[in-house]
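Entry for the shared binder. Reason: the reviewer on the internal report wants the predicted structure included alongside the sequence.
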Amino acid sequence: MFAEPTLADEPTPEMTLRNFASVGETESVRELINSGVGVDAQNQFGKTALMLAVETNSMKTVVLLLARGADVNKRTVAGCTALTFAAENGNSAIMALLLENGADITARTRAGWNALMIASRYGYTQLVDQLLFVGADPNVADKDGQTALIYATKNGHTDIVKLLAKAGADVNVQDKSGSTALTLALEKGNRELARILLSLGADSQIGNLEVDTNANLVVGD
């Protein structure tokens, strides 16, 4: 994550607001907003006070900023939103609040990641459940063709794999390298997850050829 730059020569009110938000100084944030400081002013990376408060799990500040009209779907230069930062942090309470305030579950970073992919990658089962409950599409792929299911598989998050499959995730989707969740599980040596994927309908004949032999062995076990 990018830290807010500190410029001793000309600290603007907007910069001060972001700095206070990033450390959870809620009352100071309130005073600055009351004085007319723009709540959605962005730094050089495109981060707003709301995003910085989300990053540091400053719940009271997040509540205040949303109540004072902060744009929940503002994007950074890299395409991140407050929701994608919440997904990275694993804070279910903040994620719920953002969703209640209209956070866009379809928002994607420039790399093609959405909140569901991020939460799946880091193993935040509760967040994945929250996002699926409000309609997040488990089959969206990033620029490399990788879905939330593939990210969960690569990182060994079995419970999330099951959740995603139950929600309709394609267990046989291939990324741009030709890998499937099954071949990736086998490459990681995770035979237990490979068996689970097979039970969920994974096809051992789909995917990288060099891994197919191992997949067939799993089928025969």
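Summary line for the report: The chain has two domains: 1-104, 130-221.
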